[in-house]
Amino acid sequence: MMHAAFAFLLAASSPPGRREARDPDWPCFRGPGRDGVSLETDLNFDWPAGGPKVLWKKNVGTGYSSIAVAVGRAYARGNREGRDTVYCLDAETGIEVWKHSYDCPLLPRNYAGGPGATPFVDGERVYAFSKVGVIFSLEASTGKLVWRRDVSKDPGSKTPDWGFEGSPVVLGNRLYLNAGTAGLCLDKATGETIWTSDPAGQAGYSTPVFRSGAGPTVMAVMGEKAARGVDASEGRPLRHAHRGRRQAPDAAGGRPPGRRGCLPLWIQGDRPCEGPRGALLDDALPGKRAALLQERRGGRGLPGSQEVVHAACLEL
């Protein structure tokens, strides 16, 4: 995760005269493929010594959310004086189009605090998930509230130690959240529950990832003590790997503060993986396809600390 008191855009685009009329959108955490890969071409990396020219800056407060970009608008989040704000900005100029604010504590705990989940832009809707468990559906053009739901008030629900940090994901008419033991699925139009996992289990801090192919679409999500794969259509458990103890937050790939933590969750083919891309193990189990799950404890520069790596194989 990255903390910044302001959002900014840089002129790292194509050379003058070759810029496309409309840049590809980046509507959610890790982009349109939710894999961190941009399909843009003809980018200009012939930068001056001082770096590319800053086009505009906007102070959005304190937070760890990434920026989502869709249809010429940029969506960012931050916290000031006990209130979170979702900002909609003109992506070319940084001029504020609208903002939507709501009460939410900063909740700093070994880090600066503020929102961590990135907005998801889906057509005429923007979905924002607060760290205290409130999911908002907003009109993308006006910021008007369509619906809100506090999942922390679901029976038996447990709020993670560092709050809800996983970003929302929209697939079809469904909205997926990392809440409960193995995720929560809502109707994106109404916020009504489609399926839920055991609410008594504490969620992790990763964003759900998906794999489609032969058989059901699989959603992989990191919970309090296990990485779990479920049938995305109905929430039916498929696979899990116990972690042994709780994880510290790592929603965007950096090492979390403190002495314990986890690495990002991702899927390649039919394998859910946590950790660097090199962690794939095709032959980890005889005749099976599996993934190495890594957990790191300890921190560099901490007196008396040492790094311990825990590993497990998750068969699919």
Structure commentary:
The chain has a domain at 1-153: Lipocalin. It has no helices and 23 strands. It has strands spanning 6-10, 54-59, 68-70, 73-80, 83-90, 96-103, 120-122, 125-129, 134-139, 145-150, 169-171, 174-177, 184-187, 193-196, 209-211, 218-222, 226-231, 237-242, 265-268, 271-274, 280-285, 288-297, 308-315. The strands form seven sheets. The chain has a four-stranded antiparallel sheet with strand order 3-4-5-6, with no helix packed on it. A four-stranded antiparallel sheet has the order 7-8-9-10, with no helix packed on it. Strands 11-12-13-14 form a four-stranded antiparallel sheet, with no helix packed on it. A hairpin with a 2-residue loop joins strand 7 and strand 8. The two termini are 29 Å apart. Residues 1-22, 244-263 and 276-316 have low confidence and may be disordered.
Blueprint (SSEs and pairs):
Elements: E1 6-10, E2 54-59, E3 68-70, E4 73-80, E5 83-90, E6 96-103, E7 120-122, E8 125-129, E9 134-139, E10 145-150, E11 169-171, E12 174-177, E13 184-187, E14 193-196, E15 209-211, E16 218-222, E17 226-231, E18 237-242, E19 265-268, E20 271-274, E21 280-285, E22 288-297, E23 308-315
Antiparallel strand pairs: 1-2, 3-4, 4-5, 5-6, 7-8, 8-9, 9-10, 11-12, 12-13, 13-14, 15-16, 16-17, 17-18, 19-20, 21-22, 22-23
